[in-house]
């Protein structure tokens, strides 16, 4: 992976979703590389092994085997080494309480997995733009959910 | 003059006019003596004799070797009446044999030395007046010379001083006796001389009184010896006596005297007597004194103690009085005077009797006289008149005070006001009498009542009333017992009450336990199955009460049994029903929960595959647009719409299932705030339909904000969806407070205050008959193609309102609009 590229890490156990994400990213033709891990344990191992060259952003599914996305987020945000890594929640859920909880835990943005592929492209593109622009670790609550 | 003239004719002329002694000499026959005839006597003798005989001073002459004695008239008395006289012409030794040893040597000395020898007041006792006498002399022995100048005799010039000496001796003795007397006197005596009051004499008592030694005061002015007296007026007193010569005397004169280095207060009785000389002129002062310090102090102590007693007695509210041994009252404390308003003179002796109530006087006098006669304590209740005329009861006591010999000195008495107690006692006695009478009456009525009670107990039919002895043996049996348990009185009296219990209860010791409980706690209550005589069971409610005697000992038990079989059966049936219902309820709740979690999980989990279908579909349309036939495209579109519908169905179901939970806490919040948020969320749609939302003054309501946001979202969405396409949407939201009693409908609580929210629109409305149906899940009034929707929105609204214990109703008119009324109860 070239250093100039934008490194994206996706943690999702769903093969289809991983495929959609990769296709969407390819079609966006950004200078970005994607690495995919399929569960929470794998994610944390990967992060540990790639210090200090962490990816620029993590898209994190919530419903994963072995270690849930919520657990991973909490570990990342409580660990000095990973804290600065922007975490974008990438989930099917639209439960407001869950969103509030994740916001409090320090997630950067929240993406509800769209049904429409073009919408998926839109939110990924918008999110990466936001991450590139902004160096602050958390958006305001109103801007937390990225709409297509 | 010729010295040796021997003219015999004239040689007796020296005897002329020479007194009786001269006569004696002349008449004496001298021839027989060694001197020979007078005419032959030498001139020197004659001359000497002439001098002696003519002297009025007593003189005596011893002459010649034999010391012939001559003396003159003046000397004669000294020889007494009977004695040596006449001794003239006799030799000295012959005349003074008894004192010759004394005078012989003196004469010899004078003759030898020619020098005179003299003595004053010399005791020379000799014989006269018939006995030896102590005689005092003042005398001089001087030489007498003969014609040749040779000492030939001794002239004695003498005076008898016996009387003077004796007087002087007596004087001295008298003074010695005086001094002894003064020294030994039982009073202090001192004599001060002169105007400076120099202490000339002081006896030991006086020294003791002054606290001084004799050498410290004797010969000293008093004030110098005792400087502490200077400011105490003593010198002034002495001066006064000295100048006026008048006696001063005083008693208990207080004086500070330095004794043993300390200034002591002394009290003295003393007098100053002037001492006058023969001319009445003052010489000095005699002080006579007695110290009475101890007496004064002890008297003062007694006075003090007396004063204290009076003070004490006067401060007592009780009456205190004293009497002499004869019974005459002689002291009353202040309380007596204050109470009676009488004066000391009125009360003294028998005067106090006027205080005593006339009816009590005779008794009072008798008892008092008895006490005086016998010496026994006086004790009496009697009435005293107060100054305002009221008589009050008093309890009087007096005790005799005896001296060490047991003789009564005085009586001390006191009287205490017992009016209140007396009245109380009288009242008490009356009360007791009254109570006694009442009790007698009560007893009578009790007896009657007991008879009635027995009859009543006998006749009670619904309750078995049984009396048990302490061992649980039946002693009494009423009609009710017979009816309930089946035994006749004669069948059961004398048998153990455990017969009424089931075998199981008897074996477990229940009858005994119940009796024990009643004995300990007073009462035992029990419900359970009991046996009738015919061995059928009945459900009994039993109360066993312990019956106690006055000593709190259990003497038996009353046992009241009620047959509750019917009630028991009804209760049991009810309980069964209740348990059944509870069970059903639990099952329902469980089912409901399962349903909820199913709805939530399924809707959530259903979304994923659905979403993927949609995404795959969108991929196909996007990528393979060109390869699809027109029909394929149409069918594909229909598939997508179905997926979308399913999507919204799932979303709504999810929202609906979520309203089961009381998500978030209740909050007091302004309703307008919620409405504004919803308006914000729906701003696009509102704009699109030119909607106007009118809200009036706001309500602060206690709600779960999240759910109410959902509620208004659904209401507004509904209004927008079912709007009249020819009119801009106009929505009115009003609220007001109302009480339950002003509202129609059985679900309103009268006293509760409700926040009534009215939500009206001008949409297509609905027919009133559907006003309840529209709130049911999945109920729709229009086809999906006309108005899309899942039929869940209003069900969610109703559920939310119910979550808030509120009520929602709907009113509609087709083509005119719909109105929703929400009633939210005000929480306390």
TrEMBL record, chain A:
Residues with the 4-aspartylphosphate modification: 61
Keyword Phosphoprotein: yes
Chain ranges of the Response regulatory domain: 7-128
Record key words, sorted: Phosphoprotein
Keyword Phosphoprotein attributed: yes
GO biological process, one term: phosphorelay signal transduction system
Name of protein: Response regulator receiver domain-containing protein
Species in which this protein is naturally found: Arenibacter echinorum
TrEMBL record, chain B:
EC number: 2.7.13.3
SUPFAM superfamilies, per the entry: ATPase domain of HSP90 chaperone/DNA topoisomerase II/histidine kinase, Homodimeric domain of signal transducing histidine kinase, PYP-like sensor domain (PAS domain)
Parts forming coiled coils: 425-459, 564-598
Domain PAS: 305-375, 449-507
GO molecular function: phosphorelay sensor kinase activity
Residues annotated as transmembrane: none
Ranges of residues in domain Histidine kinase: 601-828
PAC domain sequence ranges: 249-304, 378-430, 524-576
UniProt cross-references to Pfam families, sorted A to Z: HATPase_c (PF02518), HisKA (PF00512), PAS_3 (PF08447), PAS_4 (PF08448), PAS_9 (PF13426)
Keywords on record: Coiled coil, Kinase, Phosphoprotein, Transferase
Catalysed reactions, as listed in the record: ATP + protein L-histidine = ADP + protein N-phospho-L-histidine
Presence of keyword Mitochondrion: no
InterPro entries: HATPase_C_sf, HATPase_dom, His_kinase_dom, HisK_dim/P_dom, HisK_dim/P_sf, PAC, PAS, PAS-assoc_C
Protein name stated in the entry: histidine kinase
Protein's organism: Arenibacter echinorum
High-level lineage: Bacteria, Pseudomonadati, Bacteroidota, Flavobacteriia, Flavobacteriales
């Amino acid at each position: 992976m070239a250093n100039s590229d934008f490194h994206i890490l996706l943690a999702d156990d769903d093969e289809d979703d991983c495929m959609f994400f990769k296709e969407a990213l390819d079609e966006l033709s950004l200078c970005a590389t994607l690495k995919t891990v399929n569960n929470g344990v794998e994610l944390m191992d990967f992060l540990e092994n790639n210090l200090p060259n962490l990816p620029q952003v993590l898209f994190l599914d919530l419903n994963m085997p072995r270690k849930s996305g919520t657990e991973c987020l909490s570990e990342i945000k409580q660990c000095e080494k990973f804290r600065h890594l922007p975490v974008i929640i990438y989930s099917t859920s639209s439960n407001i309480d869950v969103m509030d909880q994740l916001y409090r835990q320090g997630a950067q943005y929240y993406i509800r997995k769209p049904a429409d592929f073009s919408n998926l492209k839109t939110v990924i593109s918008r999110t990466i733009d936001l991450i590139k622009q902004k160096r602050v670790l958390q958006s305001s609550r109103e801007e937390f959910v990225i709409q297509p | 003059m010729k010295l040796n003239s021997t003219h015999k004719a004239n040689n007796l002329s020296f005897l002329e006019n020479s007194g009786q002694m001269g006569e004696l000499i002349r008449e004496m026959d001298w021839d027989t003596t060694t001197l020979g005839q007078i005419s032959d006597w030498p001139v020197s003798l004659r001359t000497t004799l002439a001098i002696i005989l003519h002297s009025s001073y007593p003189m005596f002459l011893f002459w010649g070797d034999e010391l012939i004695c001559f003396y003159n008239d003046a000397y004669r008395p000294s020889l007494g009446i009977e004695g040596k006289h006449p001794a003239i012409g006799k030799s000295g030794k012959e005349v003074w044999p008894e004192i010759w040893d004394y005078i012989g040597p003196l004469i010899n000395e004078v003759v030898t030395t020619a020098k005179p020898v003299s003595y004053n007041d010399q005791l020379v006792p000799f014989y006269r007046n018939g006995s030896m006498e102590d005689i005092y002399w003042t005398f001089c022995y001087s030489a007498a010379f003969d014609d040749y100048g040779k000492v030939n005799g001794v002239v004695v010039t003498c005076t008898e001083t016996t009387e003077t000496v004796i007087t002087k001796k007596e004087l001295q003795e008298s003074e010695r006796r005086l001094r002894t007397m003064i020294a030994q006197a039982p009073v202090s005596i001192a004599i001060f001389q002169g105007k400076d009051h120099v202490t000339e004499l002081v006896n030991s008592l006086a020294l003791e009184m002054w606290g001084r030694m004799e050498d410290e005061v004797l010969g000293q002015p008093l004030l110098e010896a005792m400087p502490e007296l200077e400011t105490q007026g003593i010198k002034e007193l002495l001066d006064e006596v000295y100048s006026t010569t008048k006696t001063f005397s005083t008693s208990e004169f207080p004086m500070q005297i330095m004794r043993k280095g300390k200034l002591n207060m002394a009290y003295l009785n003393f007098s100053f007597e002037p001492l006058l000389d023969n001319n009445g002129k003052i010489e000095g002062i005699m002080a006579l004194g007695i110290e009475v310090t101890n007496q004064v102090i002890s008297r003062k102590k007694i006075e003090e103690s007396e004063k204290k007693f009076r003070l004490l007695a006067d401060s007592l509210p009780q009456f205190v009085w004293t009497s002499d041994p004869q019974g005459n009252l002689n002291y009353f404390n202040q309380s007596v005077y204050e109470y009676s308003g009488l004066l000391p003179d009125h009360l003294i002796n028998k005067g106090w009797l006027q205080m005593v109530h006339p009816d009590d006087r005779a008794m009072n006098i008798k008892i008092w006289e008895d006490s005086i006669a016998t010496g026994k304590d006086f004790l009496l209740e009697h009435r005293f008149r107060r100054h305002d005329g009221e008589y009050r009861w008093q309890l009087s006591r007096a005790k005799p005070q005896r001296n060490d010999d047991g003789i009564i000195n005085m009586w001390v008495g006191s009287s205490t006001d017992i009016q209140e107690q007396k009245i109380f006692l009288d009242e008490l006695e009356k009360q007791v009498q009254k109570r006694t009478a009442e009790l007698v009456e009560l007893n009578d009525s009790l007896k009657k009542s007991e008879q009635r009670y027995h009859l009543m107990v006998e006749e009670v039919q619904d309750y078995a009333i049984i009396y048990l002895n302490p061992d649980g043996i039946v002693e009494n049996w009423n009609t009710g017992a017979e009816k309930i348990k089946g035994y006749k009185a004669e069948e059961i009296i004398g048998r153990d009450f455990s017969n009424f219990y089931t075998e199981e209860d008897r074996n477990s010791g229940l009858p005994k336990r119940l009796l024990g409980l009643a004995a300990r706690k007073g009462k035992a209550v029990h419900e359970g199955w009991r046996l009738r005589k015919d061995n059928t069971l009945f459900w009994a409610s039993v109360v066993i009460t312990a019956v106690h005697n006055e000593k709190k000992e259990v003497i038996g038990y009353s046992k009241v049994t009620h047959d509750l079989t019917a009630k028991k059966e009804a209760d049991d049936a009810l309980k069964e029903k209740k348990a059944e219902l509870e069970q059903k309820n639990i099952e329902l709740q469980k089912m409901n929960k399962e349903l909820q979690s199913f709805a939530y999980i399924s809707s959530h989990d259903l979304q994923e595959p659905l979403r993927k279908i949609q995404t795959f579909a969108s991929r196909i349309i996007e990528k393979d647009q060109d390869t699809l036939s027109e029909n394929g495209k149409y069918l594909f579109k229909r598939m997508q719409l179905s997926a979308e519908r399913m999507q919204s169905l799932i979303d709504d179901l999810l929202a609906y299932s979520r309203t089961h939970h009381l998500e978030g806490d209740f909050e007091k919040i302004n309703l307008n705030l919620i409405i504004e948020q919803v308006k914000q969320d729906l701003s696009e749609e509102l704009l699109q339909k030119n909607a106007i939302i009118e809200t009036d003054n706001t309500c602060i309501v206690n709600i779960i904000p999240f759910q109410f946001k959902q509620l208004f979202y659904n209401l507004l969405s509904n209004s927008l969806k079912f709007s009249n396409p020819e009119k801009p949407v106009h929505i009115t939201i009003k609220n007001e407070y109302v009480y339950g009693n002003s509202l129609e409908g059985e679900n309103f609580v009268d006293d509760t205050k409700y926040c009534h929210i009215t939500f009206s629109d001008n949409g297509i409305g609905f027919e009133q008959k559907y006003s309840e149906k529209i709130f049911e899940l999945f109920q729709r009034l229009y086809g999906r193609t006309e108005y899309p929707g899942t039929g869940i929105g209003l069900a969610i609204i109703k559920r939310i309102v119910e979550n808030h214990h509120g009520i929602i109703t709907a009113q509609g008119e087709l083509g005119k609009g719909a109105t929703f009324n929400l009633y939210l109860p005000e929480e306390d």
